[in-house]
Amino acid sequence: MVDIHTGMNITEGDFNHTVDLLIAAMNEMGVSHRVQNRLLARLALLRDEMIYI
Length: 53
Fold this sequence. Notes:
Elements: H1 2-5, H2 12-28, H3 33-50
């Protein structure tokens, strides 16, 4: 994950915006909140490997 995202200058705001878009897409597709929470929990574990300040 670090190798892929190094140099992309992803900020916390970028990450949060992506999460917001993902949630909106899952809601639109009728994905249950339980499944959304499981996916978002996994994504949260990778947060520090994607954001470079």
